[in-house]
Amino acid sequence: MSIADNLSSIKATLPDHVTLVAVSKTKPVADLKEAYDAGQRIFGENKIQEMTEKWEQLPKDIQWHMIGHVQTNKVKYMAPYVSLIHGVDSLKLLTEINRQAARYRKTINCLLQIHIAEEETKFGLSEEELNILLTSDEFKQMQNICIKGIMGMATFTEDEAQIKKEFTHLKTIFNHLSEQPQTTNFKPETLSMGMSGDYKIAVDCGSTMVRIGSSIFGSR
Fold first, then answer.
1. What pLDDT digit, counting tens, does each position of 21-80 carry?
2. Which long-range contacts link 133-140 to residues 24+ away (Cβ below 8 Å)?
3. What b/e string do you get for 124-136 counting C-beta neighbours within 10 Å, with b at 16 or more?
4. What is the model's pLDDT at position 119?
5. Which domain holds residue 66?
6. Contact criterion met (CB below 8 Å) for 54 and 29
7. Rounded mean pLDDT of 162-173?
8. How many domains in the chain?
9. What is the domain-level CATH number for residue 36?
10. Which of 47, 52, 57, 73 has the largest count of CB atoms under 10 Å?
11. In whole angstroms, what is the distance from residue 41 CA to residue 58 CA?
């Protein structure tokens, strides 16, 4: 199956309200161009340097999503063009994103990463840390970022019941945030959860954005 065929078959399984992020990390520009020619406009990368190189080479109507763990000192390289940063997991990182966005007189959209998996290796905020961040004076004064929602990754397991439990938990947190008053820098509308192996469960649990790589581009 070609990349275009893969995209077509995946999109056929997604409801209209679910956004597909094509995870193109480690893939050559030619593969991204093939997906672009098939109509895909949102690509996810996990290394800022690689994403920047691809941004320079590809059409400028592409939305670039940073889906990997972000090092504070690298934010400046993607600030001019990034559309959405998925993995914001600390006030320190959010402060730097806000600072770099201000340099370009723009607003950078972000998702806060919530820790829902049982694995210790996954990054993310606890519910308590999430509440502390959102109620902090520092956050309220940030004018160059906007929290568009939350994201999370389930435990890497074959146990679908556990995956469903973790996604359902994240949806509950999202529902709670959605009931909070919106401000200029807090407009939660995106729940990003689900990857190639578990996106169908995620969609059933209420995901509005899925990150799919290997099912589109083939395994790495």
1. 999 999 999 999 999 999 999 999 999 999 999 999 999 999 999 999 999 999 999 999
2. 133/90, 133/91, 133/94, 134/177, 134/180, 134/186, 136/91, 138/91, 138/95, 139/91, 139/94, 139/185, 140/183, 140/185
3. bbeeebbeebbee
4. 75
5. 3-217
6. yes
7. 97
8. 1
9. 3.20.20.10
10. 52
11. 11
**What average pLDDT score do residues 202-214 get?**
97
Tell the residue number behind the tokens 């990182």, with chain if given.
93
- Tokens representing 37? 């020619």
The DSSP annotation for the chain comes to --HHHHHHHHHTTS-TTPEEEEE-TT--HHHHHHHHHTT--EEEES-HHHHHHHHHHS-TTPEEEE-SPPPGGGHHHHTTT-SEEEEE--HHHHHHHHHHHHHTT--EEEEEEB--SS-TT---B-HHHHHHHHHSHHHHT--SEEEEEEE----SSS-HHHHHHHHHHHHHHHHHHHTSPPBTTEEEEEEE---TTTHHHHHHTT-SEEEE-HHHH---
Residue 220 has pLDDT above 70, yes or no: no
- 10 Å Cβ neighbour count for 175? 12
Contact assessment for residue 119 and residue 155, using Cβ atoms and an 8 Å cutoff: yes
Instruction: Name the pLDDT band for 9 (thresholds 50, 70, 90).
Output: very high
pTM comes to 0.95
pLDDT value of residue 121: 63
Token representation of residue 99: 């600072």
Structure tokens belonging to residue 151? 């994201």
Average pLDDT of the residues in 121-126: 82
Q: Which two tokens stand for residue 133?
A: 């961040």
Measured on CA atoms in the order 169, 171, 175, 177, is the torsion positive or negative? positive
